[in-house]
Amino acid sequence: MSQQQNMRTVTRFDDTGFIRMQMKDRPDAQVWWKNVSFDEDTGQGSYLMKMAPGARSNPHIHRGPEEFFVLEGDLTDHDGFRYHSGDFVSFPAGSSHFSRTETGCLLVVMHRGATEAIQEGAL
């Protein structure tokens, strides 16, 4: 087996390995994630995310850039901006938002810095 094969990680959107995302003030949120390379201590890396129809994320601020790719479904930010399947989204450090989905969605999320939960009124 080559060294490359020993270092490769392949992660799929099957149901194995997804866990409920812990969100302050939203303990029953129907949002799940599967870690690919995300380091919770540094807030850097990638993960797969599933949001059930009607689910919503917590308001948060980005201490580093965040990017995500919408694979399936819809996602709407707190300001009403709608993302659709095929959209690649970038937020710079210092930006803040929360998102919701009407139909449910699958996302690939990449962070290069921690996020911090904030009050909805701070947006």
Helix/strand layout:
Elements: H1 3-7, E1 19-20, E2 31-35, E3 44-51, E4 60-62, E5 66-77, E6 82-84, E7 88-91, E8 96-97, E9 99-100, E10 105-112, E11 115-117
Antiparallel strand pairs: 1-2, 2-3, 3-10, 4-8, 4-11, 5-6, 5-7, 5-9, 5-10
Order of helices and strands: HEEEEEEEEEEE
Number-wise, the strands total 11
- Summed over residues and divided by their number, the pLDDT gives a mean of 89
- Name the quaternary structure: single chain
| Count of individual helical segments | 1
- The helicity comes to under 10%
Features:
eight-stranded antiparallel sheet; mainly beta; 123 residues; globular
Q: Can you describe what's shown?
A:
The chain is mostly beta strands and 123 residues long. It has one helix at 3-7, and strands spanning 19-20, 31-35, 44-51, 60-62, 66-77, 82-84, 88-91, 96-97, 99-100, 105-112, 115-117. Strands 1, 2, 3, 5, 6, 7, 9 and 10 form an 8-stranded antiparallel beta sheet that branches. A 3-stranded antiparallel beta sheet has the order 8-4-11, with no helix packed on it. Strand 2 (31-35) and strand 3 form a beta hairpin. It is globular, with a radius of gyration of 15 Å. The mean pLDDT is 89.
